[in-house]
Amino acid sequence: MRRTQSTTAIMVYHLLATAILLPAFGRAADPSAKCLSLKSTLQLKNTTILDVAYLAAPATVSTAGACQSSAAVTAAPVCRVYFVTNTTSTSAVHGEAWLPDTWYGRFLGLGNGGLNGCIDYVGLDYGTSLHFATVGSDNGHDGSSGLPFLNHPEVINDYAFRATHIEAIIGKQIITAYYGTPAAKSYFLSCSGGGRQGMQAALRYPADFDGILTGAPATDFNHLAGWGGMLSHYIGATSPDSSATAETSPKFIPPELWSLVSAEILRQCDLLDGVRDGIITEPDECDFQAEVLRCTGNQTTGCLTQVQLEAIKNIYSPLFGLDGELLYPRYSPGAEADLFASSVFGGNFSSLMADWERYAVLNVTEHNFANFSVHDIALVDQVNPGGVATFDGDLSEFRTRGGKFVTYHGRRDPLISSTNSKRVYDLISHTLSAPPHEMDSFYRLFLIPGMGHCFGGLGPTLFGQGIIPGTNAVNDSDHNILLALVDWVEGGVSPATIVGSDGNGAERTHCRYPMRSVWNGTVFACEE
Ligand SMILES: *[C@@H]1O[C@H](CO)[C@@H](O)[C@H](O)[C@H]1NC(C)=O
Ligand SMILES: *[C@@H]1O[C@H](CO)[C@@H](O)[C@H](O)[C@H]1NC(C)=O
Ligand SMILES: *[C@@H]1O[C@H](CO)[C@@H](O)[C@H](O)[C@H]1NC(C)=O
Ligand SMILES: *[C@@H]1O[C@H](CO)[C@@H](O)[C@H](O)[C@H]1NC(C)=O
Ligand SMILES: *[C@@H]1O[C@H](CO)[C@@H](O)[C@H](O)[C@H]1NC(C)=O
Ligand SMILES: *[C@@H]1O[C@H](CO)[C@@H](O)[C@H](O)[C@H]1NC(C)=O
Ligand SMILES: *[C@@H]1O[C@H](CO)[C@@H](O)[C@H](O)[C@H]1NC(C)=O
Ligand SMILES: *[C@@H]1O[C@H](CO)[C@@H](O)[C@H](O)[C@H]1NC(C)=O
Ligand SMILES: [Ca+2]
Quick one: signal sequence residues (predicted)? Predict the structure, then answer.
């Protein structure tokens, strides 16, 4: 990664790039002085500039408030502008713009994760390392809890749709003020909850971004949260902050039995793709039969009781609503082995669902989740706070404007089913009457076998998604999905595949849906 290079090397690189490649943009004569002058010269509607600082690379950055654990080292020298924009009299969005000395004329907006409230420092660092003027926001509240939503509908609106829009508006204005020229192209990059924000932007503010890159998007948000609640319910969890109740429930499945379940899932399904490597390339084809793990005779350990078998059966079945309609796809077989799965099956009731239902739907601080059911989900659906659902296939305006949308999803994602991303693709395709060859002209979904939530997992899962440091930030569009999007938007070159690396030399070509990843005896190739 570039961050490991010396500052001198970075400076030389920048000077070369400026002189040879970038006559139109590039460095200010004295970036530090120019940066600091923004403190008094920036005048933006409804906005207060809280701080302006020039940061040479590397530097450590931290912020006050509930997210203060978020800190980062900058990969490139930047002008950092910290601002707050009032969105109404009872809500405001805090944000940071990181403006690299060497700028390639591009704006990159960032999202957030889960219910948070935390500026994405990894994304700011990543974006500026690739010379984007990068802007992140706090999504309208501070911290990871949903408590700020309680009796604050405008804070919910910021979370559901407005913070990203404000980030785009204010971000573009700051860029114009600093560089003296507007951004030529605008991009959005985020994962998980931020993936939902990206989709919401395309639906609601299709002019905000020319290119949108989302990972593991939390689309169909109310049903995703409700599904999380049902997964908790299946294993006997009743409270978001105590695992005691679930661990004593007969429905609870302790870690050693999950290991048994995972081993059995692999025994039944690993070879479906032709390679025994621990990766189930297409989990939707894994028809996992748990019966073989049933306790027999006087066996009491290393097996599942009838009640536990019921829980497993529920977990690996789709979730249907009161009228038999599909609410959310099933849990992906194999995903239970991912590190983050313990936050789903560890014994606490889903904090996403608990916070959302208490603070945004019921407007209470206390609620007993002992009898959680699809009735709760129906209520959440009915209120749909802030229009957060984000399950709408009408991307026609975004497409008509020439917007490009790239999305990816790990097939071993333990928090958000990758099958839901197929479902969203199919929804858009159906809504626009666009078969795959037409979808290809503006919307591409890459499914990543073995990958967990946004990153990590098994196999070659690094492709420049930027959600963690060291995500393979190479300047190579085949291996970097963000730069592949740039090529598509600016050069008309659409990404046919994306190549993942494992950091140790192994690679795998990841396919775009509905193509399939097929082993031909030597490599996995993409086939219709
Ligand atoms: C934003 O709102 C706060 C609180 O209502 C107020 O004190 C501040 O002056 C407002 N800022 C701007 C720029 O309007
Ligand atoms: C400023 O905030 C007010 C509400 O407080 C809003 O009506 C107005 O549209 C905002 N202006 C801009 C440019 O965002
Ligand atoms: C990638 O490298 C090419 C030259 O090979 C250069 O023109 C381009 O600006 C670089 N892009 C980024 C984002 O660094
Ligand atoms: C019960 O367990 C004992 C000791 O492990 C074993 O010898 C016996 O055969 C078991 N009985 C049945 C019915 O499986
Ligand atoms: C359950 O929640 C408590 C309180 O937030 C936390 O300390 C604990 O680690 C959680 N347990 C699991 C298994 O996630
Ligand atoms: C909670 O407040 C929201 C507005 O934020 C409202 O739409 C909803 O109906 C309220 N819920 C109840 C149960 O009153
Ligand atoms: C849950 O349902 C059971 C059985 O109907 C009932 O006895 C219990 O009081 C309910 N618990 C809560 C918290 O509503
Ligand atoms: C499998 O695909 C690779 C890459 O396209 C190719 O080089 C190789 O010859 C193929 N192997 C077989 C057995 O078709
Ligand atoms: Ca396999």
Answer: 1-28
Q: Are residues 427 and 488 in the same domain?
A: yes
Q: What is the pTM of this model?
A: 0.93
- Report DSSP letters for 427-490, one per residue: HHHHHTT--HHHHTTTEEEEEETTB-SSS-BSSS-BSS--SSTTS---S-TTT-HHHHHHHHHH
- Structurally, how many domains does the chain consist of? 2
- Tokens encoding 224: 């995703």
Q: How far apart are CA 14 and CA 189, in angstroms?
A: 24
**234 shares its domain with 279:** yes
Average pLDDT across the chain, whole number: 93
Ligand 6 probe mutation, 362, 363, 375, most atoms within 8 A of CB: 363
The CATH number of the domain holding residue 104 is 3.40.50.1820
Amino acid present at 152: H
* Boundary residue ending a domain (352, 387, 422): 387
Ligand 6 binding pocket includes 379 (Cβ within 6 Å): no
Question: What does the alpha-carbon distance between residue 57 and residue 5 come to, in Å, rounded to a whole number?
Answer: 11
Same domain, 436 and 359: no
305 burial type by CB count under 10 A (0-12 exposed, 13-18 middle, 19+ buried): middle
Tell which of 330, 357, 387 closes a domain. Answer: 387
pLDDT digits (tens, 9 = 90+) for 221-267: 999 999 999 999 999 999 998 877 898 999 999 999 999 999 999 99
DSSP state of 139: T
Q: Are residue 79 and residue 190 in the same domain, yes or no?
A: yes
pLDDT band at 3 (very low <50, low <70, confident <90, very high): very low
Kindly list the protein residues whose Cβ atom lies closer than 6 A to any atom of ligand 7.
368, 370-371
CB-count exposure of residue 209 (10 Å: 0-12, 13-18, 19+): buried
The predicted-structure confidence for 57-108, as pLDDT tens digits, reads as follows: 888 887 778 887 556 777 889 999 999 999 999 999 999 999 999 999 999 9
Q: For residues 140 and 201, state if they share a domain.
A: yes
Ligand 6 pocket residue status of 387, Cβ below 6 Å: no
CB of 283 within 8 A of CB of 265? no
Asked if residues 525 and 274 have their Cβ atoms less than 8 Å apart, the reply is: no
- State the pLDDT at residue 245: 80
Q: Identify whether residues 208 and 250 lie together within a single domain.
A: no
> Looking at the structure, do residues 201 and 85 belong to the same domain, yes or no?
yes
pLDDT for position 71: 66
Q: What percent of the chain has pLDDT over 70?
A: 94
Mark whether 213 and 257 lie in a shared domain: no
* Residue of 232, 235, 242, 348 with the most ligand 5 atoms within 8 Å of its CB, for mutation: 348
Catalytic, 70? Answer no
Which numbered atom of ligand 6 lies nearest the CA of 363? 1
Q: What is the pLDDT of residue 72?
A: 73
- CB-based contacts of 157: which residues, under 8 Å, 6+ apart? 87, 88, 91, 140, 386
For the CA of 368, the closest atom of ligand 7 is: 13
